[in-house]
Each structure stands twice: as structure tokens, then as C-alpha cells.
Amino acid sequence: MTSSMTRRDFMKGTAAVLGASAATAAFGQSGAAPAGKTRVVLVRHPEALDADSAFNEPVIQQMLDEAVSKLLDASDPVEAFKRLVKPEDVVGIKTNVWSFLPTPAPVEKAIKRRVLDAGVAEPNIGLDDHTVRTNPLFVKATALINVRPVRTHYLAGMSGCIKNYIMFAESQPDHHPDSCASLGSLFLLPQVKGKTRLNVLCALTPQFHGRGPHNFSRRYVWNYKGLIVGEDPVAVDSVGLRLIMAKRRIELGPDQEIPPVPKHIQIADTKYGIGTADPAKIELVKLGWLDDVLI
Amino acid sequence: MKDFGPKIPKQVLDWKASGEDAVYDRKTLYDYMDGGAEVYLAFDFREVFVRKFADAAGNEIVLDIYDLGSPAEAFGMFSCDRQDPEAGIGQGSEYGPGLLRFWRGRYFVSITVSGDEDRAEKAVLDLGKAVAPLLGPDGAPPEMIKLLPSAGLKPGKTAYFHNHVHLSNRYFVSAENILDLDERTECLFAEYGIAGGDSARLLVVRYPSPERARAAAESFRRSFLPQADADGTALTAAKKWSTVKTRENVLAAVFEAASKEYAGRLAEEAVRPPR
Is the residue at A20 inside a domain? Predict the structure, then answer.
């Protein structure tokens, strides 16, 4: 207990907290981020949701295309996806079906469309959440795409791309102690290790605070209309955490800026070496709409 | 808990009971809560009774009645998440769009809405008023509350809990459990403020033994107040004062105090044996 992250550390800035040793990233850098940095793309569009908060499927496809193209410095989205998956790959799209805030179907469709465009046969593309451990397609998958919404979580502080893989765990409760500190280890499981090609953290309607029996209240969801995209799940979540903290600071006040103990993001870097949590080592590229971007 | 079934209304305004009532215990709570069960298991949770109501448009109201084993635990469950105005139901309550929470006796109740929250408001409040009389008699909040100094104590801001998870949700202190909190520790977190004057946040912890209280204070000083003076007090980067004191098995930690003198006085009063 001599080197813990305290409130004092957090108040010095996220970088001081999340900044840690350089990770031995387990993810290929297909793009052209500056040397030593991992690229994360934030794309936003004012028409991603309409006035009734319904998702705009064509706009979301356009956002994903722009983000992945920029992520890999590719000339078009199909070329970009061809760098991520090969026609012979079996591709599992790990989504999230939490009833209160599931992965939006248009995002799932947009990903699948481009995986098809990259030459992967439809029977070799799967979409699943709770049964990925036993789903035959996910058992034989050679590539994974990780997609889910960003939200706060009572134990883990934030549910993002790292936590999305908890369904690959033999025992989910085994990962709950110590604020879900061990979540990064999920990326080292044989079924998962080295297979994640893309992480899409949906910030279309992020949840910045949780209340009630299921830790959800619509009051704490806002239409940010963004996607956070990267090859490195830790870097993607690190950016997601900055967004959540910025919104909490505005809406809940500085004393509530920090969601409860989001330590698993840093530990995914420093202990499990699966990516980069340090904002100083992340190249955040912002595309599109910048109003109230917050980060 | 199933005894509640026949006593609770099957219809509230346009909302009718839908599906079967359900009861979950400590082993099956995970079946009900996809994430978040630990929040309840950290208290002396016994069972929860669940009834769902739906209207013709598909809007849903969910009634949860949690048996926490004692009034102190029920108060604790209620107290850890208070943000909305008092609703005048049970021994303590709050209502905001889509969520009514209250406690009475050893029961904590939440009523949540999925769908049109404004349309459901009256039904939610009516349902709460119908359920509250079934939960009696009233019970006493944790006796530990008398440890809190009364001057400047902000009403409705005091939380009672046991472990590190609840502290972190109420007020983030550290990513590690530097105060050695667990199911055997009793904690109060309170806010203080006097208009134009002193303000602070106060954490009081009662440990099973004086040894654990002293060890926790030492751990806290080492991790949180490494530059504390001989009194265990330090000025933080935010230009606020923080301190920690113990007496016997009670620890008091003060955060964000407006002055060093106030931090020390508040901590000293909190660890003083109640008269």
C-alpha cells in the first residue's frame, strides 16, 4: 500500500495517474502514429442521432469509415479493413447487450459491412456477447473486433473495451475484486491473445454516472455523438476515461470528477502489458464535429 | 419476501403487474443484476422482491424491495446514493425523474422507470406510498451517527457503509484500500459547511480493534498525507487541509477543510467518545 493512486494524484491530472511504464503492446501498429505513440481516433457528427435520439445509420457508417481510415492512414475504409482482417479470417465481433445501454445496432452493422467488404465470407463473421466462450465461431475465431458503449461502472469505474472481454472469463466474479483490477488479463487468454484487430468505444450516448439498482439512469446519459476507435484497447479506454471525467467535472462538480477506482486501465498497461494508458503516449486525432468535444 | 406479493397493488394507475414476481437471494442476485450485485452484497443483503409493471405503451416500472437484515443496513443502502429531493415516503426518501428510493425498518426500496419517466411519475410515487406502510415498524439509523459533530453538518449528505467500494463511489480517496475497510468496518461519510465559514468532508471509521484503527491511520498518512506535520495534518495541492486522528478503535479523516484549525477540530470531535 505504498504506491497507490490517491485522490491527490488524480488531481494532478490524468496523465500523472495513468502515465506509467511503456507497455509492450500486444497490438500491431498498422497506422502512422508518431514514433512511440499509439493512435486513437475520435470522430463525431452532429447528425449521428436525430432529434428523437434515434441512431442515424448512414452517418454512423460514415463516421466509422472516416475513423478507421484515419487510424490506419488508409485511402478508403475498405482498404483500411483489408489491413485489419484477411479473407481467410474467422471474425468475431464482441458486442455488448447490456439492456440499458447496448452497443447500437447501426455500429454493429457498419463494422460487419466493412468486414464483408474486406473479403471475409458471411458465415465466418459472428456477433455475440454472453456466449463468446462457447460460441463455435468465437472458439475458432482468428480475429476479434471489440465494440461497446462507454459508461461508468460501480466497481470498475468505467466499462470500456477492456471490460467488454469479461465474457471470455471462465468466472466473471473472479475479476470483480479490487475494483476489477485484473480485467487486462483477459486479453492474454488463449481464446483472445493477439486476435483483437480493432476496438470501437461507442460514445454516441455515453453514461457518465450510474444510479439505481442497475447503476443506470437516463439522466446521466448524453448525446455526445462520437466513436473512439483504435487498435489498442487500453489507449481507447484511456481516452474514454478522460471523456467521462470531463463530463463528470461539468455535471457533478470537481469532487465527483473521478468515477470510482478506474485502476484497471492503468493496470492493463503496467501489469499486463496489453496497451498504453498514458495520455502522453497516445496520439488523439479528432475528426468531425468539435462542439463540446470536452477532450 | 414472497409474503409481500398479495399485499402490493397489482395495478397503479395505467400500469399493471406484468410477468411473475421474483425473489433473489445472496446466491442468485447476480441473475438479476448484470453488474452491481456487489453493491448490495457489501451490506447485509438477504433477499430482494421484484415486481414489474407495464403500461399499454410498453413503459415499465420496476419495484424492488430489499431486505437488508436491519434498519442500520437499510439506512446505509439508502444513504450511499442520495442526490434527489426528499419525497416524504418511509423514513427517508428521494425522488428524481425515473427513480424513487426510500427506506423503512430493515427494508430499502427502489422504484425505477424504463421509458416515459414523466408519465410514470405519479404512478411511481403512488406505488411507493402504497408499499411503505407494509414495511413497518420504523427502525433506528446506525447508532454510530452520534459520533458526528453536529455543528455545520449538512443534512441529507451522510452516508453509512462498510467497504472500500462504497467509499470510492461516495468520495474517491485512493485506488487501493489504504484504510483497510471491509465488511467488519463501519463507516460514515459526512459533509460540513457553514455559509461563509468553515467547510470540510469527514470520514469516520469504526474498526473491530484499536490496533486496526492505528494501522489504518498509519497507512493513510503514508499514502495520502506523506508530507503531514507532526499532528498528521497537511495542506493539499488544492490549498485545502486534510488530517487523520484515531482514538481507541475509531479513526477520523478530514478532507478539503477550509483551515488547519477546522480540520483538527472536526477530527478531534469525531473521535471523542460520545457523551
Answer: no
Closest CA to A129 of A78, A168, A81, A91: A168
Domain boundaries, chain B: 2-135, 143-271
For the beta carbon of residue A52, count every other beta carbon within 10 angstroms.
5
Query: What number is the average pLDDT over the span B58-78?
Result: 96
Going by C-beta distance under 8 Å and a sequence separation of 6 or more, which residues neighbour residue B39? A154, A215, B165, B166
Return the CATH fold of B2-135: Protein Transport Mog1p; Chain A (3.40.1000)
Structural domain containing residue A270: 37-287
Q: Does A218 touch chain B (CB under 8 A)?
A: yes
**Residue A293 lies inside a defined structural domain of this protein:** no
Cell numbers for A112, please give them. 460487419
d(CA A235, CA A229): 9
What CA–CA distance (Å, rounded) separates B5 from B8? 6
Q: Considering only CA atoms, give the Rg of chain A.
A: 18
Domain count, chain A: 1
Between CA B247 and CA A141 the distance in angstroms is 59
Sheet of strand B99-104, all strands in order from the earlier edge strand to the far edge? B11-12, B15-25, B47-54, B60-67, B107-114, B99-104, B92-96
Q: Tell me, what's the ipTM? A: 0.82
pLDDT digits (tens, 9 = 90+) for A77-135: 999 999 999 999 999 999 999 988 999 999 999 999 999 999 999 999 999 999 999 99
Q: Which residues of A touch B33 (CB under 8 A)?
A: 213-214
Q: Is residue A247 part of a domain?
A: yes
Chain A partners within 8 Å of B36 (Cβ): 154-155, 210, 213-215
Q: How far apart are CA B229 and CA B132, in angstroms?
A: 50
Separation in Å, CA of B178 to nearest CA in chain A: 6
Contact A6 B175 (CB under 8 A): yes
| Residue A166 counted as domain residue | yes
pLDDT tens for each residue of B15-28 = 999 999 999 999 99
Distance in angstroms (rounded) separating the CA atoms of residues A64 and B99: 35
Cα–Cα distance, B9 to A213 (Å, whole number): 21
The cell numbers describing B98, all together, are 425515473
